[in-house]
Design a protein that fits this description.
This protein is an alpha/beta fold and about 375 residues long. It is built from 15 helices and 16 strands. The strands form four sheets. It has an eight-stranded parallel beta sheet with strand order 4-14-13-12-11-10-6-5. A three-stranded antiparallel beta sheet has the order 1-2-3. A three-stranded antiparallel beta sheet has the order 7-8-9. α8 packs parallel to α9, α11 packs antiparallel against α14 and α13 packs across α14. The longest helix is centred in the last third of the chain and has 27 residues. The radius of gyration is 20 Å and the shape is globular. The mean pLDDT is about 95.
């Protein structure tokens, strides 16, 4: 039997919640969990260099997008240059999604069958095809440490009939994908926002013995309370010795809520996307930097934040950069937001290890305001 390259161990469990602190061992290093994964769709976390991510922010893993890298520059090119790690000069772990969510978003350009998905490039209209086997082959060519099976993401809201049909298709695709390639592969729980379908899917996937289990199909327009309910509906059915990954969530003040419900891994585009649009996360809420009240504000974004942006630059200066359209703003703002997310997760992990997670979550709630 081939030894798996992905291994997860639980170090400490919270006695008051479902949270746990663990270690996720990968071919490119060990990741302390719970962990937030910065999104680098095209092999680049927008606004940040790999040196910033590795040496300054100490990100242990980033996410890249299978659909977008298939379209451009192509897995053959990346493989010929030594794989995605060497291509983008990133020595740590990489997780690639299956491309299923991106295909879902191309509703006018794709056709889903039981065999897979036929879709057209958003760049030039060229036709492509994903099957449960081929999407894993693409991710293997990229050299991903963690690969995601192909899944079908349903729109919200949808009918129970459509959600069940989609869920069963996702489960069958997971069976095919794991029969084709097993090492470093996570399966994905679907079922829309229907509790019984989510639980059925989790039961079907738990028997497949994947290296990890993700919850997909969230953050598609549902209320956040519903998203958390779907996590609660499935957490107890997933193997406790495998990592749980909630895909595409959430706001900074929501991270602890997912961890408290048993989630070990999360990713989201919000830190960098919101940064580019002048929306900055702080320990006390948000700073919308374009507002006039920051015109002559000498304070940092967050007076409690030790990041390099907050240590050196004022809100007044950052507002000037934003309104002037300076590229530097995106870098400084993205650096701060990504730091805020990674640091929040480090605080959460530390609190699990020392047994005071509920106190930490209460402190986050008491600090929260709508805008600083």
């Amino acid at each position: 039997m081939t030894q798996r390259t992905i291994r997860f161990e639980v170090i400490r469990e919270c006695s008051h919640t479902r949270a746990r602190a663990g270690l996720l061992h990968t071919p490119h290093g060990t990741i302390e969990t719970p962990v937030f994964i910065p999104v680098g769709t095209l092999g680049s976390v927008k606004g940040l260099t790999q040196q910033m991510l590795e040496q300054d922010l100490d990100a242990r893993i980033i996410l890249a997008n299978t659909y977008h890298l298939l379209i451009r520059p192509g897995p053959e090119l990346i493989a010929s240059l030594g794989g995605l790690h060497q291509f983008m000069s990133w020595p740590r772990a990489i997780l690639t999604d299956s491309g299923g969510f991106q295909v879902f978003s191309l509703s006018a350009l794709r056709k889903i069958t039981d065999d897979g998905v036929v879709f057209r490039s958003h760049l030039d209209g060229a036709e492509h095809r994903f099957t449960p086997e081929s999407t894993l082959d693409v991710q293997a060519a990229l050299g991903s440490d963690i690969k995601m099976v192909l899944d079908e993401c349903t729109e919200y809201p949808t009918t129970h009939e459509h959600a069940r049909r989609s869920m069963l298709r996702t489960a069958r695709w997971a069976e095919r994908g794991l029969a084709h390639l097993r090492d470093g592969v996570f399966s994905i729980v679907q079922g829309s926002m229907v509790r019984d379908l989510r639980r059925e899917c989790a039961c079907r996937l738990a028997d497949l013995d994947a290296d990890g289990y993700a919850l997909g199909g969230l953050s598609v327009g549902e209320p956040r309370s519903v998203s958390l309910e779907m996590v609660e509906a499935t957490e107890d059915l997933l193997p406790r010795d495998r990592p749980r990954y909630c895909m595409g969530v959430g706001m900074l003040d929501e991270l602890g809520e997912y961890v408290a419900r048993g989630i070990d891994m999360m990713d989201c585009v919000l830190p960098t996307r919101n940064a580019r649009n002048g929306y900055l996360f702080t320990s006390c809420g948000r700073v919308v930097i374009k507002h006039q009240k920051y015109r002559d504000d000498p304070r940092p974004i967050d007076e409690k934040c030790p990041c390099q942006t907050c240590s050196r630059y004022s809100r007044s200066y950052l507002r000037h950069l934003f309104l002037s359209g300076e590229i530097l703003f995106s870098t400084l703002a993205s650096y701060h937001n990504v730091f805020a997310y990674l640091d929040r997760m480090r605080q959460i992990r530390h609190s699990i290890l020392f047994g005071n997670l509920p106190n930490l979550l209460n402190s986050f709630s008491s600090q929260r305001v709508s805008e600083e």
